[in-house]
Design a protein that fits this description.
29% strand, alpha+beta, eight-stranded mixed beta sheet, globular, four-stranded mixed beta sheet
Amino acid sequence: MKTAVTTPQSRCIAGIARADITPPVGIYHRMWGAATHERAEGVHRPLTATALWLEARDRDPAKRHLVLALDHCILDSLAMNAVRTRAAAAVSLDVDQVRVCLSHTHGSGWMSPSRSHLPGGELIAPYLESVAGTCANLAIESQSQSQPATILYGTARCDLAAHRDAFDEPRQHFVCGFNPEGPADDTILLARVIADDGRTLGTIVNYACHPTTLAWENRLISPDFVGAMREVIEAETHVPCVFLQGASGDLGPREGFVGDPAIADRNGRQLGYAALSGLTALPTPGTRFEYSGPVVSGATLGTWEHRMLSRSELERQASWDMVRLVVELPYRADLPTMEETRRQRSHWEKEEAAAQAANDADRARDFRARVEQMTRQETRLLALPAGKSYPFTVTLLRLGEAVGIFTPGELYQSFQTSLRSRFPHLALVIAPLTDDWQPGYVPAKEAYGHGIYQDIIAAVASGSLEYLIEEVGRAIEAFPPQAAPRE
């Protein structure tokens, strides 16, 4: 019989700070090809930036890390680097010690300088400058508030996320939408940050689900379901909740692609209450739940109790290791060329103009979306490094019995399910869309060759995700060994 249940823990120095980064109403907002508006017309809920300062207990300056969680969909690499550089300089960190993690809300709008010529685009550059300044201030605040703490990790379950590679039988092609028959990882990896004096400093929710409740009909700046999720948790805990998007390339909300903010709030409450159940179940730091023996009553009862960990176990939970891994992912052989992309965009622009001249609003909208697809394809191609492969950089941060895995791009759910299955004794915090959104989607091998959206726009070849999983797994195994938890 298993006689102990362990809770993964990290003993460190931690601090959390929060700020509002809501863009001004009127800023360029069009995130969806099917959208007919350009500017944001209001605010559903504020967008936030949350800073999580992490430092080893020995206060070695080389063992510090700043995680900035921003409510945005995608940011250009230049904007990401500006945030990282400003924040790093504010607290004397190296840029490689700063992570910028995006929630991926599609209600934030596309804050790219490449959109500056469009209506509301003139507000993008000053807005991004203000975000970089805010993040620098958050870095200072989170560091100043940091103190000895323990991070306790647990899991909960929520079926908000659903598989979204769906085959439309009557039309014989794939669509990106709710597939009730597809697999969907419902794991919430969560954590509570508890100071040594017993106060909760903050919580962490790591969940994989595209924030695409709100789509082309929505004209409001919104964090999507993430906003209401945080509200539920923070109303109970009275401390900031850090949301980290998981590997959600093939996962989205069961009910999504709508214009009603109330549905986004309902989705968020569903996730928030599920996360709260797991947070509530976490034990006291520095303890393990152990079988303490039989007690004879009407029946012979098996009793359990929380017992304090040994000094060596507490020391293990304070270990700190960081590795930066560059995995070369080959580009696909049929990657579109810039010339072909621009030719197709010109074609769709002519089709849109003809539909408008014929007062055919539906066709004009569809052709406008095609133009937008080619514009975004051009943006992706321009952002890809030259050569035959993409240098995919992964940052692995091991804190005690947890490993943070920070990657760029949008990964399919098998990235997290495979690694968590391989390392069941570690709390794996999976955070794609960190530091860069390129190379875009990294789908599972079986998603290629069927006309699935994520395959069509993926820059890397089939098999890239599986190779990446293996390389990251090897890197985790290469960390200095720790004693296995007692069971």
